[in-house]
Structures are given as structure tokens and as C-alpha cells.
Amino acid sequence: MSTPREPSPGKPVLSVLAAPDWWEQRWETLRAALTERLGPADYESEPLAFEHTSYYEPELGAHLLRRLLGFARLLPLDGLKDLKLATNVLERAEARTDGSRRVNLDPGFVTLERLVLASGKNFTHRVYLGGGIWADLTLIYNKSQGWVDLPWTFPDYADGDMKRRLTVLRTLYKTAIETGQGRNKQGERPCP
Prior knowledge:
Number of helices: 5
Mean pLDDT: 93
Helix content: 25-40%
Number of strands: 9
Oligomer: single chain
Order of helices and strands: EHEEHEHEEEEEHH
Strand content: 25-35%
Radius of gyration: 17 Å
Number of domains: 1
Distance between the termini: 17 Å
Shape: globular
Largest sheet: 9 strands, antiparallel
């Protein structure tokens, strides 16, 4: 029989996707709101051209740019739903007067084993967390191969450049866990 154990916390990550004018006008305001909610970022990519799909263009605009952020404060893995709900509030605060989004915020967790993103949309491989939020196992990490795509991995997360960035985030996470920033070591204490 297995004994339930509390896992180590995860490293919050966030993909921020918006058109160039939003970045010029609103990025610093959103960055401050994110820092207030999640603590300081210990990783922030430069703006990256988002050319993997035109899915977001009707709502967000053309020539989209993405930043990938990693946050220093580790959070319990069962907080993914709350993290997504909090970013939904920030998206609504940034919305146009007609309610359409100006920015897309995709939160998730990096752990030693995986990248899990939160979604408000159901799909066959997603697990329901509650509150209208689903967990999407996006990539797994294998020591011999690095980040491994799954049949449903979005092309932008399957990209080699994204995987290199995620490896940096995983290394920051690993260091935090090894230096005791994590709540506990994997499997150290039973669930209450």
C-alpha cells in the first residue's frame, strides 16, 4: 500500500502574450501586480516573437510578443488552480472596454519531472482541478533526453528555444530545492 506524501512545491512560471502596443503601455503595471501576488521574478525572458499560431491574433492583435517569467517563491502544487484564477483576474483588469483580452496569461509550474500549465478548457488529457480550471501536463523531463514532447504538447512549448528557457527555470528550481527553499523534500512527510 502506498503512503500519501506531500510533494515539494513547484516553481511558478508564466507566459505573457500580447501585441507590441500593450507591452509599451501596460507591461510595467502588470509586472508590478505580478510581483505583488507572486513575489519577485528570478527569470524574465526578453520579448520573443510569437509565430507558432495565429489563434490569438483576432483577440490580442498582430505581431504578438511573449515573455516567459519564473518566480523565486515556490508554491504548493495544489495551488495551480488558484494561480490560474488570479491570472484570470489580471487578464480581466487589462481587458478592453468590450471585455476582449489585451493580454493572455498562461501560468504553470516547473518541477524536476514536468511542466504543467493551467487551462480553463477541458480536453482528453487534462485533469480537472476545480473552479473551472484544468491541469495540462505539457512536457515531461527525462535526464537522458531533457524535455520530452507529448502528443498534445503545443508547438510553441515543443520548440527548442522554449525548452532551453525551461531548462534554465528547472535549474533555478533545482537549486532552490537543494538549498532548502522548498517547503520539504520530496516524500519527507506524510499527508495530513
